[in-house]
């Protein structure tokens, strides 16, 4: 395993561990998701550079576009839950209520 591969794998695993273990606030969960998407973007960009082919050159930009859409939807949900519930704590959100 190369050091670059180890760095991006550990970056993704740290984001996943943060998402799994620190689910107290919605903002911290969104930040962990963004860290995971950033590690995937950098790893995919380096992979296309190592292949030296133009066939996969659009895939990092597509991933970045989906990541931006995911971030905007997450922030909209954060603002909506903060307005209705007064906090972003995940324990205060009841999914069974309308």
Automatic annotation (TrEMBL):
Localization (cell):
Mitochondrion inner membrane; Mitochondrion membrane
One GO BP annotation is:
ATP synthesis coupled electron transport
Membrane topology field? Multi-pass membrane protein
Annotated Gene Ontology cellular component terms: mitochondrial inner membrane; NADH dehydrogenase complex; respiratory chain complex; transmembrane transporter complex
* TM annotation in the entry: 6-22, 29-49, 61-80
Which InterPro entries does the record cross-reference, listed alphabetically?
NADH_UbQ_OxRdtase_chain4L/K, NUOK/Mnh_C1-like
Which superkingdom? Eukaryota
Protein EC = 7.1.1.2
- Kindly state which keywords UniProt assigns to this record, in alphabetical order: Electron transport, Membrane, Mitochondrion, Mitochondrion inner membrane, NAD, Respiratory chain, Translocase, Transmembrane, Transmembrane helix, Transport, Ubiquinone
The protein's matches in Pfam families, at most eight in alphabetical order, are given as: Oxidored_q2
Catalysis performed (reactions): a ubiquinone + NADH + 5 H(+)(in) = a ubiquinol + NAD(+) + 4 H(+)(out)
Q: Which GO terms describe its molecular function?
A: NADH dehydrogenase (ubiquinone) activity; oxidoreductase activity, acting on NAD(P)H
For the keyword Ubl conjugation, the answer is no
Q: What the protein does? A: Core subunit of the mitochondrial membrane respiratory chain NADH dehydrogenase (Complex I) which catalyzes electron transfer from NADH through the respiratory chain, using ubiquinone as an electron acceptor. Part of the enzyme membrane arm which is embedded in the lipid bilayer and involved in proton translocation.
What family is reported?
Belongs to the complex I subunit 4L family.
Question: What protein am I looking at?
Answer: NADH-ubiquinone oxidoreductase chain 4L
Its gene name is ND4L
């Amino acid at each position: 395993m190369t050091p670059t591969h180890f760095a991006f794998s550990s970056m993704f695993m740290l984001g996943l561990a943060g998402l799994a273990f620190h689910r107290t606030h919605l903002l911290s969960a969104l930040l962990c998701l963004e860290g995971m998407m950033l590690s995937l973007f950098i790893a995919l960009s380096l992979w296309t550079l190592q292949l030296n082919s133009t066939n996969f050159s659009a895939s990092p930009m597509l991933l970045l576009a989906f990541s931006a859409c995911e971030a905007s939807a997450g922030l909209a949900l954060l603002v909506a839950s903060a307005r209705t519930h007064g906090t972003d704590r995940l324990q205060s959100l009841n999914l069974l209520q309308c």
